[in-house]
């Protein structure tokens, strides 16, 4: 027995410490350094560290998500889709997000890819709250794999790399206000935000972009 009352399990402890260091590298400064932590302290921090590491990956690459769409053809390009979280009135063509986009593994909005992207956006911008389960979301999707046949839709897996949320603030049935625009860091400067903004303006009678704006958001609007 060790002085902490834990049985001696050097192989497991070494594996835990290695995992702890790897997760800490994704979110530096969030927890005590591995060499200064006991095994019980390390184990107690894994849930927190994993969540923060997942958010760091989401901020860089976007959350994992699945969708259905026509065959990819010759190019494996970005795809645009959307979802109406208010009344399911708006449709978005042949690219349809999978059920996992809205509920996540635990079948709740909290762990859904849409909410994980919203949380990453909140942390990067320093907002008090992330966008919630409301409005019409336009999303940009980056496929990494696809499968299907000649008949029926293809099934895609990839990353949600950008979103824009439009709201009907005065509840008159007309969506006129852009509330949020986000692009994952690794996908910035590729025109994704511009494409989402152009799609929103083509679909809705946009009259307002809500404040506050980040410096990047202000530059985007000025450029458009």
TrEMBL record:
Species for this entry: Umezawaea tangerina
Name listed for the protein in its UniProt record: N-acetyltransferase domain-containing protein
InterPro entries the UniProt entry points to: Acyl_CoA_acyltransferase (IPR016181), GNAT_dom (IPR000182)
A GO term for molecular function: acyltransferase activity, transferring groups other than amino-acyl groups
Positions of the N-acetyltransferase domain: 154-200
């Amino acid at each position: 027995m060790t002085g902490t009352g834990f049985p001696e399990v050097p192989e497991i402890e070494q594996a835990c410490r290695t995992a702890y260091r790897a997760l800490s590298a994704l979110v530096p400064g969030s927890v005590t350094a591995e060499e200064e932590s006991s095994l019980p302290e390390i184990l107690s921090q894994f849930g927190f560290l994993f969540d923060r590491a997942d958010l760091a990956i989401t901020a860089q690459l976007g959350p994992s998500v699945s969708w259905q769409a026509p065959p990819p053809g010759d190019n494996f390009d970005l795809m645009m889709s959307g979802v109406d979280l208010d009344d399911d009135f708006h449709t978005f063509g042949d690219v349809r997000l999978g059920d996992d986009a809205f509920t996540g593994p635990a079948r709740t909005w909290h762990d859904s890819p849409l909410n994980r992207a919203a949380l990453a956006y909140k942390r990067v911008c320093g907002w008090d709250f992330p966008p919630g389960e409301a409005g019409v979301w336009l999303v940009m999707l980056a496929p990494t794999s696809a499968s299907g046949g000649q008949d029926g839709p293809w099934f895609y897996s990839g990353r949600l790399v950008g979103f824009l949320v439009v709201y009907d603030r005065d509840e008159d049935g007309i969506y006129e206000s852009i509330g949020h625009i986000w692009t994952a860091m690794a996908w910035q400067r590729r025109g994704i935000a511009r494409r989402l903004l152009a799609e929103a303006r083509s679909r809705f009678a946009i009259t307002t972009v809500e404040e506050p704006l980040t410096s990047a958001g202000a530059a985007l609007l000025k450029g458009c």
